[in-house]
Every structure is written in structure tokens, then in C-alpha cells.
Design goal:
Radius of gyration: 14 Å
Number of helices: 5
Strand order of the largest sheet: 2-1-3-4-5
Number of strands: 5
Shape: globular
Largest sheet: 5 strands, mixed
Bound molecules: zinc ion
Length: 154
């Protein structure tokens, strides 16, 4: 299955919506191979698994490396995620050598791909994925707002 960025983000948004059903913050991620085929997908599973590092991006990158066929390297791949990656996930995308990070909504409180930090394009690092922000951002933000509103019992 080959997806353009809009469609890949649509899939990530579906995964995000599923995560909230088991009580996790609605964040979803898809990794596309060099040819645009879906290599892996995941949703945030921190609450579900009790694993503080089970962010959608980390889970999707790990799963993608298992099928991509170049060891741990995801050269030529694209990480598509509904919310701007945190420091851990921005770091994981640099370490996995993805070519590109595409995200939906900005995260002014914790984003590490341009908002609070810019781990992904830090010139001191020798691998810097290209960043595309704001893809279907409003849909992602709406999902997150509704989730947090429900959590506060409003
Ligand atoms: Zn993260």
C-alpha cells in the first residue's frame, strides 16, 4: 500500500483515535519506505503497556526497522506523526536516519522539531532529517483537545 503524505497522516490520525480508547493520549505514527509504502504504524501505548518510552514514533520506528531490511537504518524512509515529536522521539528519528519527519500539530509545551527545541535540525548533528510541519494539523489538535477535555471531566 502506497500513501501520499495526506493519506499517511489520515492513517496516523486513525491510529491516534484508537489510542484514546485504551486511555492513551491520541498520537499515531506511520513510517513510509523509500517508495512510499507503509512499513509500520503504531499508536501511543504508554498507558496500555506501562512503558514510559512507548510513544507512537518509537514503536513505529522499531517496527519499521524490523521490516525495512537495512539493520537499524531507515535511510530513505519518512516518519509521519500526528503531533510534533518530543525530545526522545526527535532523537530517535535522528538516530534511525530517516530522511524526513512529517508532523501534524505543533507542540509548544514539549515539541523538539522546532517549537521548544529543534533536535531534528541541530547543525551539530551530522544527520538532519528534513521536517514538514502542519500536515492535517487541525484534525490532530482537535483530537488532542477533546481527549484532554474529557480527562479533566469537562
Ligand atoms: Zn515522543
Amino acid at each position: 500500500m502506497n500513501l501520499d503524505l495526506d493519506a499517511a497522516m489520515g492513517r496516523a490520525l486513525d491510529l491516534a483515535a484508537a489510542a484514546q480508547e485504551w486511555g492513551d493520549t491520541p498520537i499515531g505514527a506511520v513510517v513510509l519506505g523509500p517508495d512510499g509504502a507503509v512499513l509500520a504504524e503504531a499508536a501511543n501505548e504508554r498507558e496500555k503497556t506501562g512503558d514510559p518510552t512507548a510513544h507512537a514514533e518509537v514503536l513505529a520506528l522499531r517496527a519499521a526497522a524490523r521490516v525495512h531490511g537495512d539493520g537499524w537504518r531507515l535511510t530513505g524512509c519518512t516518519l509521519v506523526v500526528t503531533l510534533e515529536p518530543c525530545t526522545m522521539c526527535a532523537g530517535a528519528s535522528v538516530l534511525s536516519r530517516v530522511d524526513r519527519v512529517v508532523y501534524g500539530a505543533d507542540d509548544p509545551k514539549a515539541g523538539a522539531a522546532g517549537s521548544l527545541w529543534d533536535v531534528v535540525r541541530d547543525r551539530r548533528l551530522n544527520h538532519r532529517p528534513e521536517v514538514t510541519a502542519g500536515v492535517r494539523a487541525e484534525e490532530s489538535a482537535t483530537l488532542l483537545r477533546a481527549f484532554f477535555r474529557a480527562q479533566r471531566g469537562l
